[in-house]
Amino acid sequence: MLRVVSLEYNLGHPHPKGHWFLLATVLIFIFAVPALVLVNLATLGYDLVPSLKNNFTSNEDSRDVWWGNRRLPYLLRPRYQSCDPKELTRGDTFRLSGGIFDYTVMSVWNTSKSTEEAGTQGPSLVEYTGQSFAHCFANSSRFDYSLVEQTQTLTVGVFCSSSDSFKADVSMQTTVTFAWTLGKDFIGQYYGPGLEPEDLVNADPLKYRRTVLAALQVISTDSLTIMRHSDKHLPNPLLSASMTFFGNQDTTLFDYVEGTFAYMNGSTPTPYHESLAIYFPGIYNILNLVIDAVHLDLGNLLYPNAFRNASRLNELVGPNLAPAPPDVPVAISAADWAEGSKPFYFNQLTTYQTWAQALLDGVPVQLNDGSLTLPSKSVMATGYLCPTYRVKPLGPLLVSVFVGSATMILSVWSAWMFFTAFLARRMMPPRVICHCSDCEKRREIDAEEARKRAENPIQYGALAGFVAFMKGTRRPIPTSAPRDEERTGVEALGYREPSRPARPDYTSEPFDGNKHVSYLSTSTAGAK
User: Fold this and answer.
1) DSSP assignment letter at 159
2) What's the distance, Cα to Cα, between the start and end of the chain in Å?
3) Domain annotation covers residue 162
4) What integer pLDDT is reported at residue 54 of this predicted model?
């Protein structure tokens, strides 16, 4: 086995320049130890823990981190970890940052793949990382009425085309149910029981949700009240109705496509009887206002919106007064229409004939572009699981820093000792020459081996050359006329240190006191 390198020679003589190595060691570790402790504080002083965040973050600009922007050099800063994306697939239900409607995903088509593969794979699953829904729009709607349930339901279809940031076509829908029973009604389910009217619309005009829901509540009260009195308007009261509408991209309005109607006597005429036309203004009022509310919730700025621009309200909503000839054979009284109706959170209608008429007059809420403060972006309202760096408690912090610092300091110490020992061996040959009989015999043996190696040189292999290099030995240089017999033996040392001969037996050979150890001029004593 190789002997461990040391700064001392076999005779125990210290290196002549050992004080320089000591000074360098002290200076290096004076600066290295504090630096290593600081590095361990910066790299081991935190834990990576999961946390829920409202926004998806994948870059350092939006991170709120404990080390700040300039407290640590870039190389010592922990690397940022992206949040886990959300899966978006058929059947998922979520809200947007607007927080008004719940959307159910009907299908997701990944457009990032090739056309043939995308056409055969069917609805797929994609990753959602906080992309905006502002480009989505309502493209269809269905109106359902039930006299038995006393409900009117609007199902609005929404389509989101693929974009550069989100490579998928998403089709989804939201369902809004208006009913005479608070537990079934969309407004009652949104706020929950126990609310008073002042909780819905208060003095703060910036509460856009309350403004939108108040407008939907009063406009739906008109339609519910009017169709509930169908027995006073029609020979056969209306039992149920289902009407389908598609959006017109040119006019931004919705056109009636088809529908089915059932009467109390069991008849289902196709097409619908013209007497049902008296209900269409109220249905269109609630349909158009819900569509604009959906666009507002989506953050869509491409289409005009009644909740942003009060002038559009006059285009979408009509007063819906009680019909009179020639629209109907016999005029319908206001009392049999919508007069006196009462929503859940507002007083009974007295001044106006319909709530649509009141809404156009700014009662009970005023719709204008200055009354709404919307979220800055329209994204999915969900929580993302994000890794977050947190400073360790004091106890674990001290343990981590101590163990890490001790390990690094010992590693640096080992590397430094290896380097200094190697450097010391390569700096100069030994400065001590021994004149005892043991050394003389060993030098004769070494000289003989060196002469044999010079006559038969050994070819160095890669491993043998490295071992010889690490031991500080050199190739022998044969000399024809050595100037000094003792130095010749020293300079002709071999590639490996041979085993020492046994010491002489002084019982058979008397000890010669005149033989002693001498040193060169740099040693502490000279030869006599």
Assistant:
1) E
2) 39
3) no
4) 83
